[in-house]
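Supplementary Methods, section 5.1.

A reviewer requested that the exact input to the structure prediction be made available. We therefore reproduce it here, unchanged from the version used in the analyses.
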Amino acid sequence: MKKQLVCIGFVALSFFTQAVYASLMISPTRVVFDERQRTAKVFLINNGSEAKTYRLGWKEKRALPFGGYQDLQSEQVGPWKLSHLMRMTPRQVHLAPGERQAVKLALRRKQGMSAGEYRSHLLFQALPTEQLDNSEAIGISLNMILSYSIPVIYRKDVVAPEVRIMATKLSTDLNGNTVIAIDLQRSGSASALGKLQAHWQPKGAKEWQVVATANNYAIYPEVTNASVELNILAGKVLKGGGQLRVTYTGQEEYRNLIFSQRTFDIAN
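The structure derived from this sequence is encoded token-by-token as follows.
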């Protein structure tokens, strides 16, 4: 009986986590300050059925070559953090179902700042709505504090980075699905943001077809060599050999910029 209750507890935890993530909409999901900009707004919308309270703060993170972030301790933070130059209001928001709240960000630049890209992550912590008693049988508490974060960036005297697509191949993910594995190389002091798209031309065919797309793919300054796997679109099959053309095209402040494009021969 005890094992059954433990399983029930983990199922409930999984559902609770997904529900909380689905209840908060954040727009935009990335903020970039340039030389002239001083303020920005981030909008929070509670699209759930319960009132929620969120506490705001800052988190320092390091981007990883294969995606995701590593949280940094204070002694690991380098000179490019931005949080100490930022002010935000309010620091805590309470949102009724369907309610929207603007968070105001203000950048206070200092004289003599080195050229480069500064970044910290704006953190939103969902506070518990009610206190749940721990059960000895379940052994866990569902009253978790969940958090979400978005990057906030300031660029001083930087130019667009250079990105090269180095290699592409067909691979298999942990679930046994065929994916397109891409290796990229970035240089320069600024991060890149863009759309990765793969077109497939089967052997003997004349037309190209889109087989994979990933929007808002970022490569940050601390990452020189990045790797990513693109899921193949439903209904698309890459068999019999052919050519795979991969393009990394800039988005947002880099729109209309083609970072890199290469075509690879694929034999399978």
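The longest helix spans residues 2-23. These observations are discussed further in the main text.
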